[in-house]
Amino acid sequence: MALMTTTRTKLSRLLSSFTATKPPFSGSGSCSNGGSALNSPSNLMSFKCSSSSSALASGECEVVGSRHHVGLEILGVKDYVDYRRSLYGEISHKALLVDAVGTLVVPSQPMAQIYRQIGEKYGVEYSETEILNRYRRAYEQPWGRSRLRYVNDGRPFWQYIVSSSTGCSDSQYFEELYSYYTTNKAWHFCDPEAENVFKAIRKAGVKIAIVSNFDTRLRPLLRALDCDHWFDAVAVSAEVEAEKPNPTIFLKACELLRVKPEEAVHVGDDRRNDIWGARDAGCDAWLWGSDVYSFKEVAQRIGVQV
User: Fold this and answer.
1) Residue 162 pLDDT level (bands cut at 50, 70, 90)
2) pTM for this one?
3) Element (DSSP H or E) covering residue 54
4) DSSP state letters, 224-261
């Protein structure tokens, strides 16, 4: 009863604070909205990226972020962290699962721009806007050849996407585009502090795995970005034969790390694929760009000081 009374009191204070203050900034800044359907991970494009550094560079984002964290504390996140630590000790989780595209890395240039630039010499005439719109329509269609989009190297699926987006079926064009997205030139890290943070997390005894809807190019890509050694395991949908939000891929990651699902927390930018999928598997889950904004914050919530 005392806990219920405390919770009601906190909620009442939260509601009072909302009515006493102006609404947070809601313009078209660079803060991530966390989990839009258009932000679904894709290894050839991403509709957005709001890295922690760019988000924190905006004064408006700092205001929103501070209110966000105050609200979370009032709503009981601190109580939840204390509860986890009462069960598992100062380190609240034994494993960290990380989404790839949209959380760890994002394309360095807009997808439509790359499709257009490389495609010009192959006769692609669509504008970047038209390419993007056609891409969206193609990507949202059911993939009839398999229940999985990313099978092995994903070539049949991506050939369909590229030709649908650009109107060009030239095999040389596709191969050049396909190869481009396996290079470090095509991607950059969302959080420039990721390497140092991951080192600290692993030093504290917490294991880390990538959990990604991706084809078999993911491992070569991680090597190209020189970050493959940051992780203890990689669970790729094309290898596991299960795509997020299917809990199978999260369970596989936990199996590779030799931890129980309830001992792991997953961080990703897609509410459906990352948050709902991980929780269905029995893992904890935090939404990138909403619950957490940097890997340093992830580490601190786990109980690791960086």
Assistant:
1) very high
2) 0.76
3) helix 52-56
4) HTT-GGG-SEEEEHHHHT--TTSHHHHHHHHHHHT--G
